[in-house]
Design a protein that fits this description.
- 67% of the residues lie in helices and 0% in strands.
- With 487 residues, the protein is mainly alpha-helical.
- The protein is elongated.
Length: 487
């Protein structure tokens, strides 16, 4: 049965029962629609819940109404006052009602409160609902839906190991119960978590599965945040071009913001352009939006990050961003704190400030290790090893006869272009071109380079054409000879 038909039957059933029973059925209709429908399609549910609240006056109905009003206002991006109060006020009231009443054994009310804290972007609070959900007598589909939210909460709050386990179980239970909408949601979030964890093949398979599941149920909700999950995989693979393209899509269309990361996506894209020598593009991206409140996840660092993007080489903006980094102390900010430390450490390394670079990169690597982000940790460690310089070569007799390792080249905005000097009048090599040039200079074929960098052979061929032109070389041998030498 389609989710729309399921919701319609629940709403028809609500016509002939008392207000509290009717409110529960309206919330179940919301749950049927919430993984497929657009936010504005659910606005009529809020009006219906409000009428039931007015007729009942009971705390359970009030909690249901507040949850629906807050979630729908947030998802539909309704202006303050469109549902009499702004979404955050509704959701705060819902959580307070749950905490002030003995509702922990009621599945509907537990799910109301859990949904509210996640919509409020307080994912670390989802953990407190886990024991309640474990004790509830639920069918597989209902348990899958709530476990998916708890798994997302744990992952977002910096516990990727536990979140990965919970999301896998949620996807399994959803498949057993035939809830393809919940399975699509859990699988899409799992794809992002596994990318951050370094399980790149599994992440890619999850993305394909999530797309297929979303198409089977017509899920506007899952389709909205799939670009965010795809971008995480591109980043983990070192696919700079793909990552930047997806960031541009998300910023331009406001997709992929289901985790409240729309400011981070915009700031990341602006950082890329600033460090690639396009300050006017970076400034335009930032001018389009204001800084969010300090209470917003990442809020304490975003003003300083903005100032650094606009003038990345100024000692004052570098110091300001480093100081703001220490204010990212909430669980929801753990991954962002690691990322900012990595960005700033890599920039300090490019400026030759090795001591400060080592401190920041080591701090970033520790934070990624604590969250379980093994994929991100591997990339930061590559920067740390580069900072230390190449290891001393062993005696020639001791050199093993093995093929060179095929490591992922790290994704670093503004990577140094000193390995190859371009001809006078030509623009510098981009970060992607440097990585391709290094791979080809190492003696790899186009296919081998594509495998190392996790891009297509056509992408390698495209970059090689630009590299040959900029360096003024005619073949791979001349390219290898130009490594580390002026033109």
């Amino acid at each position: 049965m389609s989710t729309e038909l399921a919701a319609e039957r629940l709403l028809a059933e609500a016509d002939g029962v008392d207000p509290e029973q009717a409110a529960r059925l309206v919330f179940r209709a919301f749950l049927a629609l919430s993984r497929t429908a657009d936010g504005r399609q659910m606005i009529p549910l809020v009006a219906r819940a409000q009428r039931l609240r007015d007729a009942s006056g009971s705390a359970p109905v009030e909690l249901i109404y507040r949850t629906l009003a807050g979630v729908v206002a947030t998802r539909a991006r309704l202006p303050d006052g469109a549902t009499h109060l702004d979404g955050a006020t509704h959701l705060d009231t819902a959580v307070r009602l749950f905490d002030d009443n003995p509702f922990g054994a009621d599945p509907i009310l537990v799910e109301c409160a859990l949904t509210s804290v996640m919509t409020l972007m307080r994912p670390d609070e989802a953990r407190r609902f886990a024991p309640l959900v474990e004790a509830l007598d639920l069918d597989a589909g209902d348990r899958a839906r709530m476990l998916a939210l708890i798994g997302l909460g744990d992952s977002w709050a910096g516990n990727l190991v536990r979140g990965q386990v919970e999301l896998r179980e949620a996807a399994r239970l959803a498949a057993l119960s035939g809830r393809l909408d919940v399975q699509a949601e859990a699988t899409s979030w799992l794809a992002k978590v596994e990318a951050l964890r370094g399980d790149l093949d599994s992440s890619a398979a999850r993305l394909d599965e999530a797309r297929s599941l979303a198409a089977q149920v017509g899920s506007a909700w899952v389709a909205r945040h799939l670009p965010e999950c795809t971008a995480a995989l591109a980043f983990a693979r070192g696919d700079l071009d793909g990552w930047v393209g997806l960031l541009g899509l998300m910023v331009a269309t406001e997709t992929g913001v289901t985790a409240g990361l729309d400011h981070e996506h915009r700031w990341e894209l602006a950082t890329h352009h600033a460090l690639a020598g396009r300050p006017e593009v970076a400034a335009g991206l930032l001018a389009a939006v204001c800084d969010p409140p300090v209470s917003w996840p990442g809020g304490p660092v975003l003003p300083a990050w903005r100032a650094w993007i606009l003038d990345p080489d100024a000692p004052a903006t570098v110091a300001g961003l480093a100081a703001a980094l220490d204010r990212l102390t909430r669980p929801v900010e753990r991954l962002l704190a690691a990322r900012i430390g990595w960005l700033l450490g890599a920039h300090q390394a490019r400026a030759g400030r090795r001591g400060e670079a080592a401190r920041l990169l080591e701090q970033a690597s520790a934070r990624y290790a604590q969250t379980g982000a093994a994929g991100m940790l591997a990339l930061v460690l590559t920067d740390l090893r580069a900072l230390a310089g190449p290891p001393a070569a062993p005696p020639r007799a001791a050199l093993p006869r093995v093929a060179p390792p095929r490591e992922v080249v790290p994704l670093r905005a503004g990577a140094p272009a000193t390995a190859f000097t371009v001809r006078t009048g030509e623009p510098a090599l981009t970060g992607a071109e440097i990585r391709v040039a290094l791979a080809i200079a190492d003696g790899l074929s186009n296919r081998e380079a594509a495998q190392r960098l996790f891009v297509s052979v056509k992408t390698i061929e495209f970059h090689l054409g630009n590299i040959f032109r900029k360096l003024g070389v005619r073949n791979r041998t001349e390219l290898a000879g130009r490594r580390g030498h002026p033109g």
